[in-house]
Amino acid sequence: MSPFRAGFWKDYVAVIVATVILGAGAAAAGAAALDAALGRAVTGLLGEEGQYDLVVHVREHSRDAAAAELARLLEADWPGAAVSAGVTVAGSSNFFITLPDELKTQSTLERLAASLAGLPGFNGYAWMLEPGVTVSGLRPGVRDMLAQEAASWPGVRAAVRHGGSVTLLLDGAERRRPVTEALQQRLAGRHVLEVRWAAGAAVDEEAALRALADGLRPRTLRDVTDRSGGGEPWEALARRLRELLPVWRRLAETGAAAADAAETLMRVLDAMEPAFALTETPEEQGRRLSAAVQGEGGADAVRQALIRVFAANLVRAVGGEDGAGPAPGELPPREQLEQLRTALAALAQDAAPLREAAREDVAAALDALEELLPEEPAAGRVLELWTDQEVTPGAVARVLREAFGYEAAVFASGSGFVRPNPRGVAEELLADVRRAVAGLLAVAAGLAALVLDHATVFAALSRFAAGRRRRAALAAGVGAAVVGGTYALSGGGLPFVGAGAAAALGAGLGLLVMALAERISPVDDDEILAGMALGLSGGQIMREIVAPAGRPGLLTLLNSRRRRFR
Amino acid sequence: MLRVIDVHKTYGRRQALAGVSLRVAAGETVVVMGPSGCGKSTLLRCINRLTTPDRGDVLIDGRSVLAMDEDELLELRRKIGFVFQHFHLIRRLSVLDNVALGLVMAGTPRREAEERALLALTRVHLEDEADRFPDQLSGGQKQRVAIARALAQEPRLMLWDEPTAALDPILVGEVLDVMEELARERRIAMLVVTHELRFALRAADRLVLMDAGRIVEEGRPRDVFAAPRSAVGRRYAQLLVH
Description:
The complex is a heterodimer. By secondary structure, chain A is of the alpha+beta class. Chain A folds into four domains: 8-37 and 423-562, no CATH class; 54-188; 189-227 and 380-414, Alpha-Beta Plaits; 236-372, no CATH class. Helix content of chain A is 60%, strand content 13%. Chain A contains 18 helices and twelve strands. Chain A has helices spanning 8-46, 63-77, 106-115, 140-150, 176-187, 205-216, 233-271, 282-294, 298-318, 333-372, 393-404, 422-461, 468-490, 499-515, 517-520, 525-533, 538-549, 554-562; strands spanning 54-59, 82-89, 92-98, 122-127, 132-136, 156-162, 165-170, 190-197, 221-223, 382-388, 408-413, 417-420. A four-stranded antiparallel β-sheet of chain A has the order 2-3-1-4, covered by helices on one side. Chain B is an alpha/beta fold. Chain B has two domains: 2-79 and 159-241, 3-Layer(aba) Sandwich (Rossmann fold); 91-154, no CATH class. In chain B, the strands form two sheets. Chain B has a six-stranded mixed β-sheet with strand order 6-7-8-3-9-10, with helices on both faces. The N and C termini of chain B lie far apart (36 Å). In chain B, 49% of the residues are buried. The chains are: A alpha+beta, B alpha/beta. Chains A and B meet through helix 16 and helix 17 of A and helix 2 and helix 3 of B.
């Protein structure tokens, strides 16, 4: 006797379908609710998409001055732009800038970023252009090349260069994926080779490129050498350090000389003390000497200043301008002298470490720094190539050596990488979370349906002389359909769990529920036997006796419509 | 009406029936007695194929029960009343619905089914309990509802599987009274498995004694008890004396 006769199989299929649809809907709704809640949290942190275009960081102590200057700058040069102050974190204050659409062009955005460098306490900036995609880790030549190419791609509104990155501002969020894929395709399988020629080599770069193209036959070979003089940030830093080295040496020497001069002056003061009774006012002498000490003339200037002071005072001491002593009301000369001596002692004390360090440690440190700084390549001594990853540094060096006898050091660096913007990362994370939650809820809904609805059917099956294998097959099939279907329809996406794996999991759960069916939803043997004895078909027994006595669920709900005895 | 021909049934290693043959004529009341586990209940269940025999055959009105397809079998069961030891009422249904259930499921219109159910309840003197539920009834009342449920289908054959065994001795009488009344009417053939000796003496046309899956003795109840030929018969005879 089959329990699925008398149309009960239709009811049962309807229950499975309804379970899948309702379970998937519930799972998707639950996940969407969580998604919305988390989305609000992201919006609270990052603002609405496109609300801000640029965040400017300034040092906390310059916050007020920077705010004023930023407001002035935007009002004067970037009409329509709005600025709002953000939080201060770890000594860095932030200002969020919103730009009108007409300003969102490559040249305007790059000029705006460049103009920020003059802000008081400027500590960098970051683009928040949305919807956008950022590609980083680019050599300057590659960055420029990529920016130029991408600017003409469909959906790309502007390609903004900043540092070793290019941020592509897109027409819509839906363009993010195709543009990202296009960028990845452009960067995939390629790298940058930096060819550094030996010193003094006379190189014909065009001939070298031709030789490489002929010798290695790469799909891509492009000269991306940055000849603008800009270069990487670290290169600019090295160049600046090289410029500062002589200044630091002079400062160190001047400091040492100042210390020497201060000590000498104190000795002179001691020797000339009697003569100072008729000197000019100590304030004037102090200012004169201080100017000499702080000036760029070094020890000689200080000595000359001293000589001038002493000579003038000596003259006064011998003949005097008016032959009189200090004017009435002036401080007593002795006190002034003591003040000068105190100031000189402090100066000598402050400068003493400098003098000692300058002669040994500072000089040595500056020497070491000079040695460590890379030698600035002369124009034409570096060639950067954008080419296939299969083109190795060794192969390039070999071709150049064989073709021209050039000795060159060749280094490889990455082609760059696509870096989703913070909102993109957050949205991807949220999408992952939503999919995972939907998946979990789908499995939970499927398991609930198996327990509430199908355990009753599984338990009743054994009363209808269904063999264990048939019951197991039905339980596994129903479990796979319910859990797998709900999972797939809900858009669930647990890590490493596809729809097939979910169906397999459902089959396992179905078998488990079947094994525990008697405990989960026991059926009354006596009532089933009575139904059989009365001549009820299997379907009628399921509908009128078994299902109504089962746990409340979709089966009992849907079954009640067709039950004769309510 | 009913012929049981050399029926065998085995559960695992235990042989419940070892070649049972039996006849029941229309309107006849046959009582089957024997010790527990001798195969009496299995015999009843083989007749309406609640249990399928391993061998042999069961003929009702000349038709083999074992050869029937599922629809024929369901039709047959509707014409065979079955009264269980433990009543087997549907607890969520009222008394009236319990009695009408088989009729409605067989296609009888609801109103007609309820009228017939009420008549059946009247026959067992429970018409006033129609709206109550099984859990609100005594054991004897439950069994009378079960009898009414079987009677409502107007069977030509009724199978009784120890209908009084689960009842308080005080309540046994009300069930036996109904059974005896039915037997006297002789409209329905009845095969009654019971240990009620007095019922057998008063109502049975024939007594069949079983032991170890076989029929060991049969005849008119008075004859069997007066001169038992089997050990089982002798034990029952002694019980009757006491």
